[in-house]
Amino acid sequence: MRKIQPFSYMRWAKAHYYDAPISLVPSGMPPPGPEEFRIPGDLDLRTELLAVGKDSLQGQICSIYKAEEEECLVTAGSTQADLLAFHLFLEPGDEVLIESPAYGLFQSLASTVGAKARSFKRLPENDFDLIPSDIEAALSPKTKLVVFTTVHNPSARVASPEILEDLGERLEKRGIPGLASEVYLDFSPDSPAAGGRRPFAHRCHPALLSANSMTKVYGLGSVRTGWLLGRPEWIRAAADLREIYAPVLPAVPLRISALALQQRKGLLARARQLSENGRARFLEALARMPGFSAPRPQAGLTALVQVQDDAGAPLDTMAFSDWLRTEKGLGVVPGDFFGLPGSLRVGYGVPPETLDKGLALLDEGRRQFASITG
Q1: Cis peptide leading into 332, omega within 30 of 0?
Q2: Which candidate, 107, 274, 85, places its Cα nearest to that of 182?
Q3: Strands 95-100 and 143-149: what pairing?
Q4: What superfamily does domain 8-30+267-373 belong to in CATH?
Q5: Cα–Cα distance for residue pair 364/358, rounded to 1 Å
Q6: DSSP string, 222-283
Q7: How far is residue 357's CA from residue 258's CA, in Å, rounded to a whole number?
Q8: What contacts 63, CB < 8 A, 6 or more positions away?
Q9: Assigned CATH for 57-264
Q10: Structure confidence at residue 265 (pLDDT)
Q11: What is the pTM of this model?
Q12: pLDDT tens digit sequence for 206-247
């Protein structure tokens, strides 16, 4: 039997997402209310909405995200889009090069095909920015796929189109595709979904694929709708795989997703407002919190915060997170789940009073925890 690497963060998140009175765990938008997202009362949710074709969800996605029909595949969430890419490009014994710190899903996906996961470092001294030469230096003859996120999860740093083009050129020379998870990029006002001109990865270079979904920015995680954008030959092969995993995508999620894209102007404005206001409030508070530091988040609703005691030593953030939850009623994500002990992922996409109280508890808790364990 193949050994599957558990997705440890997801198990933890399902147990602790909202089990603290104040939770700074969430990384995406909350579901929109009826005043923010209108679903007509006479909408027939029983009739299938085609996932393919001009008058389909695929057609909407292509129009918004600047892709041809043959370059777009609708999937059951971005996780399925990622899964299809892993199964498309990797064989048992191949290597996949994954960023670090990283969302733990990618290492788990590698195990589903018997591939070996290796990492390239996104370094704190570089604000965790994506550096193409570092990726190229980490490639090996066995590397068959490179995986990264932009917006980076967990640091919320954004790779520019020029950086992605540079990376694509380097990968193209080696015949290696790159998978960009871009599920937070619609927080940017430059996103094409918001009327901007910022291209997604598949438009920055043809060696890159883009995975996205309705979850993080639109707040519709429960509909499990995503898409994969890339070269036509890759998308055709991915479609063959999807026909095995999900021959027909569910009608209700497709219709709700189509409605959300039609109403995207308001939904994206809602997301950007929460992101911009929360980030400003977070950074203002962080400047008054000794022992905490973070690169400036550039999009999204989270920051990667490094935590030290008064002597400058990193805290045991797994233990600190548990202590905060039980002693302070505060939920934060240990950076250990992303491969960076000594850090926390802190979400600021919450009401202002919740954020203020949560950060005050975090500041107070660091001093108390350090004195107990020091």
Answers
A1: no
A2: 85
A3: parallel
A4: Aspartate Aminotransferase, domain 1 (3.90.1150.10)
A5: 10
A6: GG--EEEE--HHHHHHHHHHHHHH-SS--HHHHHHHHHHHHTHHHHHHHHHHHHHHHHHHHH
A7: 37
A8: none
A9: 3.40.640.10
A10: 96
A11: 0.96
A12: 999 999 999 999 999 999 999 999 999 999 999 999 999 988
